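On clarity, I found the account of how folds are encoded harder to follow than it need be. What matters is that the chain and its backbone geometry are given together, residue for residue. I therefore recommend that a typical entry be quoted early in the introduction. An entry of this sort, consisting of the sequence and the corresponding backbone structure tokens, reads as follows:
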Amino acid sequence: MSTATITAADINKLRQATGAGMMDCRKALTETNGDFEAAIDWLRKQGQKVAAKRSDREAKEGVIIAKTSADNKTGFVVCISCETDFVSKNADFVAFAQGIADAAVANDVKSVEELNEVVINGAKVADMINDKLAAIGEKIGVAKFERIEAPYVASYIHGAFRMGVLVGLDKDAAEAGKDVAMQIAAMNPLAVDANSIAADVIERERAIIIDTMKADPKMEGKPDEMIAKIAEGKLNAFFKENTLLAQPFVKDGSLTVEAYLKSAGDVKVTSFKRVALG
């Protein structure tokens, strides 16, 4: 069987198409007797093997992109993870993540699984990730994906792509949306208001408060009714600290977020998402 001659131009062409290293491209072309498409498949298979070998590696770094559709009615957060901040700070990797987030918006994606199947310039996102993995030698992937719909959605990226926030509002209010998104980034609320916190979370917090109080020697002998009443007061403090509308507004501590939104045109928050690395 004849052996194809592998030229530097062939290797460079494969490298440009896949992002793989020069030596990997040479080996791929050699293994496939110079068949360009087969060489791409060979590299992808190698990428899958690398992914399997690195399945136990932690990918705590990455790039988070928050974007909205052109009409600002749908918002998306996409986190493309990697292992080191050296990669996450690389301009090419940031552009790679931006491209995937743009595809999520353009295709109105609704899940990670759907995003992995989206085609960009003839290649599926999942295959592009495999190629990038083979090129940089780190475990990468679509680690997190969030999406919300509302009459108006504001997006915010914080800290050099380390956090993304989406806020759904009941009306077009760009400035208020940005302010509230920054509030969420800084204060990390659990929910919009007390009614939005899951019942099991509330019960767990109540139980912790009561058990802590009963363990306090100062509360020894106090009737359960008194402890329960005090616990409700502490639970209200928990709501004030952990629900968005009850939190002090970071730009003006004399206002709650709810009061700020009322002054901004009686704007209502319908939902929010906050995605951070780590």
Q: What stands out?
A: Residues 224-242 form the longest helix (19 residues). The first strand starts at residue 61 and ends at 68. The chain is about 50% helix and 20% strand. The chain has three domains: 8-53, 61-164, 194-273.
